Amino acid sequence: MTIGVGGSTAEAELAAIENMRGDVPPIGVDERLQRVARAQAIMREKGIDALYLDVSSSMTYFTGLKFRRTERMHSAILPARGEIVYVSPAFEVEKLKTMIAFGDKIAVWEEDEDPTATVTETVRALGYPSGTIAVDEATPFFTFDGLRRAGNAYTFVNSIDVTAGCRMIKSEQELALMQTAKTITLQAHKAAARIMREGITTTEVQAFLTAAHRKLGSEGDPPFNAVLFGEATAYPHGVPYPQTLKEGDMILIDTGAPVDGYLSDITRSYVFGEPSRRQRDVWNLEKAAQAAGFAAARPGNRCEDIDAAARGVINGAGFGPGYATPGLPHRTGHGIGLDVHEWPYLVKGDKTVLRPGMTFSNEPTICIYGEFGVRLEDHMVITESGARWFTEPAHSVDDPFGLEK
Question: What pLDDT sits at residue 209?
Answer without folding.
Answer: 98
